[in-house]
Amino acid sequence: MRDDAPDREVAHAAELVARARRVTVLSGAGVSTDSGIPDFRGPQGVWTRNPAAERLSSLQAYVSDPEVRREAWRQRATHPVWTARPGPAHAALVDLERSGRLLALLTQNIDELHQAAGSSPELVVELHGTMHHTECLSCGARAPMAETLARVAAGEDDPPCLHCGGVLKSATISFGQELDVGVLMRARRAAVDTDVLLAVGTSLGVHPAAGVVDLAAAAGAAVVIVNAEPTPYDDVATVVLRGGVGEILPRLVPGPSE
Ligand code: NAD
Q: Hey, CA dihedral for 47, 51, 56, 58, is it positive or negative?
């Protein structure tokens, strides 16, 4: 991807990060597009190419329509997440942690690529859950996704919960579903307590996740946005860097020994 960010702006953002004692990161689907996982709203996004696909992310449609669930299981079975490897943006955020500045890595991603890259699981706050587990919508039982996908491969096209027979879904937040209160509180605290809020590869169009940007700014933090396209929070930001996260993030983050 092109890196349109002027050197002067990149240097300003790098200085904000270097001077900060605490940096909170909010990452989005754009961090994983270099790893072959499409975003939803970018130019090559799943919903940009096929607006009808948005229905698969609606809790109401998932619960009420067995065909939506069957399609969701077909897509999960062949999802690029199972073979994806972390990219340069994930690696840069591991360097940020090693430099001792990372307060929390808030991610809207459900692919666990931050952890695969080496980010400490204790610092990763998965706002929208994870695809690597299933959760029963009735009894809340969780299981590894691989176990359920094995049932799908064996012929169950809409596998029910093995404990209570309820509807199973990936352990992710769909539209119409509340975020976990404890997870959201943790994210908001990390936004309020930080010197710099670094929002990377996210359209900042999904709430309440995007609201951490306002919280951080109101608490006096510098806000740095790195994204390929404009976001509704660009006016709030101290610095906006337009371009690829894989190209820009390694230029912003101190190396492990710095
Ligand atoms: P989004 O699809 O709304 O926005 C992604 C943004 O990243 C877009 O503005 C796009 O222009 C930008 N982008 C794409 N590739 C980029 C790159 N290489 N460098 C810089 N910018 C790039 O995604 P979102 O804001 O994260 O929110 C959408 C929701 O979709 C989230 O709730 C998330 O749970 C889910 N989602 C997750 C994944 C994943 O886990 N990898 C993938 C798709 C969607």
A: positive
Kindly report the CATH class assigned to 1-37+86-128+179-258. alpha beta
Q: Closest residue (by CA) to atom 14 of ligand 1?
A: 30
CATH no. of 47-83+130-172: 3.30.1600.10
- The residue nearest atom 2 of ligand 1, judged by CA position, is 40
pTM comes to: 0.95
CA angle 231/234/236 to nearest 5° reads: 135
CA–CA distance, 172 with 111 (Å, rounded to integer): 10
Where do the domains of the chain lie?
A: 1-37+86-128+179-258, 47-83+130-172
Residue 30 CA, ligand 1 centroid: distance in Å: 4
Pocket (CB within 6 angstroms of ligand 1): 1, 28-30, 32-34, 37, 39-42, 45, 108-111, 128, 201-203, 205-206, 227-229, 244-246
Annotated active-site positions, please? 128
Q: Ligand 1: distance of its center to the CA of 155 in Å?
A: 32
Q: Which of 4, 39, 213 to mutate to test the pocket of ligand 1 (most atoms within 8 A of CB)?
A: 39
What residue owns the CA closest to ligand 1's atom 43? 39
Per-residue pLDDT tens digits for 118-169: 999 999 999 999 999 999 999 999 999 999 999 999 999 999 999 999 999 9
Question: Do the first three CATH levels of 1-37+86-128+179-258 and 47-83+130-172 match, i.e. the same topology?
Answer: no
**How far does the centroid of ligand 1 lie from the alpha carbon of residue 28, in Å?**
5
